Amino acid sequence: xxxxxxxxxxxxxxxxxxxxxxxxxxxxxxxxxxxxxxxxxxxxxxxxxxxxxxxxxxxxxxxxxxxxxxxxxxxx
Length: 76
Prior knowledge:
Elements lengths: L2 H9 L24 H15 L5 H5 L4 H11 L1
């Protein structure tokens, strides 16, 4: 699993946040656009792209995009 690809797919779930804002160390829940709808879209994206089911708890327990990618990788 490639971090740059994961970040690109992650960023596509946001409408108004610049792609340049997304880095492995980005604390995604601190982004202005973050809300429960974006969280659901992230869950759906991970399922569709990686065939992995992540939960709301997985997202809440992940501080950064890299943390969430590590959770996804651990479930593959």
